[in-house]
Amino acid sequence: MDRRTLLAAGTGAAATAAWLVTADTGQAAVSTTRAAVGRSLAGVGLGSAGRRGPADADWAALDRGLGGGLIRPGEAHWSTARQLYNTRFDTLRPAAVAYIANNADVAECLAFARRHKVPVSIRNGGHSYAGYSSGNGRLVIDVSKLNRVTSGSTATIGAGAKLIDVYNRLGAHGRTVPGGSCPTVGITGLTLGGGHGVVSRAYGLTCDSLVGATLVTADGRTLECDKDHHSDLFWALRGAGNGNFGVVTELRFRTHSTPDAASAYLSWPWSKAAKVIRAWQEWGPGQPDEIWSAAHLSAAAGGTPRITVSAFSIGSYSGLKNAVDRLIDRVGAPTTTTSVRRRAYRDAMNMYAGCADYSNEQCHLPGATPGRRAGGKLARETYTARSDFYDRSLSAAGIRVLIDRTERFSRSGGSGAGSIQLTALGGAINRVPTGATSFVHRDSRVLAQYLTSYPANSSGSTQTAWLDDLHGAMRRHSSGAAYQNYTDAKLGDWRRAYYGTATDRLTRLKKKYDPERLFDFPQAL
Fold first, then answer.
1. pLDDT for res 12
2. What CA–CA distance (Å, rounded) separates 321 from 340?
3. Residue 332 has pLDDT above 70, yes or no
4. Cα-Cα-Cα-Cα dihedral of 211, 217, 220, 222, to 10°?
5. What per-residue confidence (pLDDT) applies to 414?
6. Is residue 6 part of a domain?
7. Quick one: 196 and 295 in the same domain?
8. How many degrees, rounded to 5, is the angle at CA 521 between CA 517 and CA 524?
């Protein structure tokens, strides 16, 4: 699952979708925190606004050489083109955004970057938690135009496709790939960093269904990667491929059927929070593969904390009903229960995307640039997040930390919301050998995401201080690993946290495929 978790949203069934939808704050005022983000990124390899860059004539020549087009500051649609999804990064000022139409466009951009020593960033949905898909003075290579999706037992998906389009286009043929729930996330970033979702316990991670990829390397070569061709690079792409080895332009997946599904949502009084977590952490990871679940602790500043569990199954209705009943037997009757409901698979994906009442056109960000839709109704949000993997169940002390920190947020002044989402792992995820892909977190029972959201025109300092305190307090209870798709710019030994035993091999591959470090950013290998 991804971070979508707006905590001030409604209760009951509506809150299930509210975990996954976004709050827009639009073009916000520049806050102290966001200005600091821009300064930090400019100073650690994301480009410098003071760099003497290419002349206007050079940029014009690049524009003429691209089939997809180039947008620069001051031109039409620039205010939208430069944006990432998270409004925290609105202070970043890239030099240009190139919309890629084919592999030749990528090679042209990389040649330009090498010639003029311009740093590059790669972007699809723009959801990088650390803002690494942009940067001051950078040439942003945006792949959103490469959005073709073909279906069958094997699907070919352009690197620019967004999840809502992947689900709907494959779903029309009764097929799917396991993925996350945020509709505007790009399929590329999700896959290359692993890819968790509500069917991952049944079908594995998104990267586990990847059977081939096309990418353009730093020297402009187009490589086809699979188990028989450039197999070392194919191994690396499945877990460590985000921005490290080249620009991926196409992905090929083994697809899965879309059986009818069932979902459930339960909420208990906050006084039962410890009992719910203690029971769920044994119940969730121990369910049959087809049943996914997450426990969620949340609080709005000045509000009452909440404890909820969401469950989803592509097995039988009765199977999920019986499983939920067993959890209730351990914890006691919930105050709110959305009874187990049958759902068509595509309807369930739209529900988790927060788009149950939207058309496919509406389930996009609005705008005229590639990746957006004129009729889009979704919105950006402002948030900061961190993560942990738990390899064993939490002790009473660990559970107490989660409860205490949630209560602290509810007592805090100001605004915003704080969230802890615990996602059950196991099943097909953990049956993949640790070294089979560069995603190495195959022994974990639970993925924890800690998140705080706040108004875009606020500094966010109180909320991020709460987040850092929570993360620090949970380190002694966690494995020490972190999810690479939840990029955390504050991590110290991020290589080991993200890649563990794969780190040394990945470092050698980086030197092989990108010896001059054209693809460089603060957490590049």
1. 37
2. 6
3. yes
4. -10
5. 77
6. no
7. no
8. 70
Is 492 contained in some domain?
A: no
Q: What tokens appear for 31 in the block?
A: 């806050």
Residues 284, 302 within the same domain: yes
Q: Same domain for 193 and 90? A: no
Residue 114 domain flag: yes
Q: Which residues of 468-485 are buried (b: 16+ CB within 10 A; e: fewer)?
A: eebbeebeebbbebbbbb
376 has pLDDT over 50: yes
Supply the angle between the helices 56-64 and 103-116 in degrees, to the nearest 10.
Answer: 160
pTM value? 0.91
Question: E strands along 350-470, which residues?
Answer: 383-390, 417-424, 446-453
Q: How far is CA 412 from CA 232, 289, 302, 456, 463, in A?
A: 49, 39, 6, 18, 9
Say how many C-beta atoms besides its own lie within 10 A of residue 393's C-beta: 16
Whether 213 is covered by a domain: the verdict is: yes
Residue 423 DSSP symbol: E
Of 62 and 12, more confident: 62
Question: Do 235 and 159 have their domain in common?
Answer: yes
Measured distance CA(355)–CA(338) in Å, rounded = 18
Q: Dihedrals φ, ψ of 478, to 5°?
A: -105, 180
CATH number for the domain spanning 201: value is 3.30.465.10
Res 337: pLDDT: 66
Phi, then psi, of 336 in degrees rounded to 5: -130, 125
Provide the domain count of the chain.
3
pLDDT at 412: 86
| Domain region containing 199 | 149-257+501-513
**CATH at residue 82:** 3.30.43.10
Average pLDDT of the residues of the chain: 90
Q: Considering only CA atoms, which of 117, 109, 7 is closest in space to residue 67?
A: 109
Which has more confidence, 503 or 15? 503
DSSP label at residue 207: G
Whether 458 and 478 share a structural domain: yes
Give the CA angle between residues 379, 382, 385 to the nearest 5°. Answer: 125
Strands 417-424 vs 446-453: parallel, antiparallel or unpaired: antiparallel
Q: Is the pLDDT of residue 10 over 60?
A: no
Which DSSP helix (H) or strand (E) runs through 285? Answer: none
Q: Which residues contact 266 (CB under 8 A, 6 or more apart)?
A: 308, 309, 310, 311, 324, 327, 328, 334, 336, 337, 338
Q: DSSP label at 393?
A: P
Name residues whose C-beta falls within 8 Å of residue 14's C-beta, 6 or more positions apart in sequence: none
Burial of 374 (0-12, 13-18, 19+ CB in 10 A): exposed
% of the chain residues with pLDDT over 70: 90
Contact 473, 401 (CB under 8 A): yes
Residues 162, 174: one domain? Answer: yes
Q: Does 112 share its domain with 176?
A: no
125 with 178, same domain?
A: no
Looking at residue 53, its pLDDT comes to: 81
The identity of residue 400, as a single letter, is R
Is 118 in a helix, a strand, or coil? Answer: coil
Quote the CA–CA distance of 521 and 525 in Å, as a whole number. Answer: 9
User: How much is the average pLDDT of 87-109?
Assistant: 98
